[in-house]
Structures are given as structure tokens and as C-alpha cells.
Specification:
Blueprint lengths: L9 E4 L1 H6 L2 H15 L8 E9 L2 E7 L7 E8 L7 E6 L3 E5 L8
Parallel strand pairs: 1-6
Antiparallel strand pairs: 2-3, 2-5, 3-4, 5-6
Pfam families: DUF960 (PF06124)
InterPro entries: DUF960
Keywords: Hydrolase
């Protein structure tokens, strides 16, 4: 069995994510995983992040299926209604990918 979300593993974002979110938000998800989650709570191989409008700024709401642990992380980036409402971070043991909910079935 592998340890989920190893920062040494290859990391990607799907075409759908790249076309709907700025790179700074994508990078922020990886930073949140590495700095706020990894080593603090046990992580599954799939994590959910809701992108929330917090008075015009982005708040990332973290959760994972089967866990009662949730966390909100306020970010200094302007919110846009064009952003997806939710993205997933998925680790298949070889690579890690940020995906839209509609893309998760492909993995």
C-alpha cells in the first residue's frame, strides 16, 4: 500500500480544471495538501475541495469521503462565478491529479 499524496510524486491538473481555474488556485490546492493536511490527518486517495465565495475572495473547503474532518482555508484570490464549485485531488499511487467532478469517473 502507498502513502497518499506524496509531494515527490508527479502532479497534474486535468484539462477541465486548467481551463476553469487560474494556476494560483491549482497550486494552492497542492500547498493545502502539503502544508495543512499531510501529517495532520490521515488522507485517503481522494480529497474534495469546494470552492466557496467568501465576500469576494476564495475559501477552499476541504473534506474527504468517510471522514468527519473538514477544514476551510481562506485564500487571497478573487472569487469568480466561473470557477467550478468543487474539485477533487486524486492519488492513484503513481501520479496525483486535480479533477472536476465530471472527470473523476475517467480515473
Amino acid at each position: 500500500m502507498f502513502e497518499s499524496f506524496d509531494s515527490e510524486r508527479n502532479r497534474y491538473a486535468s484539462v477541465g480544471v486548467v481551463s476553469s481555474m487560474p494556476g494560483e488556485l491549482i497550486d494552492s490546492i497542492w500547498f493545502i495538501i502539503d502544508l495543512d493536511l499531510k501529517g495532520v490527518i490521515p488522507l485517503d486517495n481522494i480529497l474534495a475541495f469546494d470552492i466557496v465565495n467568501n465576500h469576494g475572495k476564495v475559501t477552499m473547503h476541504f473534506s474527504q469521503p468517510g471522514s468527519s474532518v473538514e477544514m476551510d482555508i481562506d485564500l487571497p484570490f478573487a472569487y469568480s462565478s466561473q470557477f467550478p464549485t468543487q474539485v477533487y485531488a486524486y492519488d492513484d499511487g503513481t501520479r496525483e491529479t486535480i479533477l472536476l467532478p465530471s472527470e473523476i469517473k475517467q480515473y
